[in-house]
Write a structure and sequence with these properties.
single chain; about 270 residues; alpha/beta; Hypothetical Protein, Haloacid Dehalogenase-like Hydrolase, Chain: A, domain 2; 6-stranded mixed β-sheet; 5-stranded parallel β-sheet
């Protein structure tokens, strides 16, 4: 019997137009009526996932920053778990970005900082309805770093190269490609899977009672934490290889198809 649905957001619940269908919201309501917890597990900032959770009627804590933070929002603002980047490592990544002319987003205490107001950051934030602060990083005290995000909207192969290079340079960091354009850099323990395991332990839920679903390589750790491992039809090949079940695409409400099959129509 499934007791938790641990789900990615972008490309899984939300289409790439950042919209979701009424059927998604209806399915979430049905899950809740059956007592099944629905947990958003995302690489987004907490504040960038908060509005989505509220719109969808979700009340469980949000897992943000690839698993770097788990925070309540419904009845309180308690931080249940947090895994920040080491400040010295963050400074090294900033230097790497400067040396290689890489745009990075710096997240500290759930605030987004960039060094220049460019088309890249406007494209990133406009779609997510979040604010950002423009400031030279050497003017900031680098601490409480949630994560660093390197972006190139024009060259996915360049992003793949960053992931490969940084993994060699920093085997003690969690570095993953979360979309074709994003290279995520975080604390080694800041994974979606570790966050789901934390919540399972807190709530007394077994791994086999978790349905985990996503679409990108950063969801591989998420699927590993689930008893039922579902990849979206639009998922990367690496995620499909890690899955037990491949559902339809996000454009065809594959998320709804999966939860209906495994949680809402199966005989328990």
């Amino acid at each position: 019997m499934i007791k938790m649905v641990a789900t990615d957001i972008d490309g899984t619940i939300l289409k790439w137009s950042f919209e979701y269908t009424p059927e998604v919201k209806q399915a979430i309501k049905k899950l809740q009526q059956k007592g099944i917890k629905v947990v958003l597990v995302t690489g987004r900032m907490h504040c960038a996932a908060l509005g989505i959770a509220k719109e969808l009627g979700i009340t469980e804590p949000i897992v943000s920053y690839q698993g770097g933070m788990i925070k309540e929002f419904y009845k309180c603002d308690d931080v249940l778990m947090r895994c920040d980047m080491d400040s010295d490592k963050a400074l090294e990544i900033i230097d790497w970005a400067h040396e290689n002319n890489v745009h990075i987003n710096l997240y500290m205490d759930d605030i987004l900082y960039v060094e220049e107001d460019t088309e890249t950051i406007r494209k990133y934030t406009d779609a997510r309805f979040i604010d950002y602060h423009v400031c030279k990083f050497d003017k900031l005290k680098i601490k409480n770093v949630n994560k660093i995000l390197a972006i190139d909207f024009n060259n996915p192969e360049r992003v793949t190269g960053w992931v490969n290079d940084l993994r060699k340079l920093y085997p003690d960091l969690y570095i993953v490609k979360s979309t074709p354009y994003f290279c995520e850099i975080a604390n080694q323990s800041a994974t979606k899977g570790a966050a789901v395991e934390f919540l399972c332990k807190k709530w007394g839920i077994k791994q086999e009672e978790v349905l985990a679903i996503g679409d990108q390589d950063n969801d591989i750790e998420l699927l590993k934490a689930g008893g039922i491992k579902v990849a979206m039809g639009n998922a990367t090949q690496a995620l499909k290889d890690a899955a037990d079940y491949i559902t339809d695409t996000v454009e065809n409400d594959g998320w709804v198809t999966a939860v209906e099959h495994f949680c809402l129509t199966c005989e328990e």
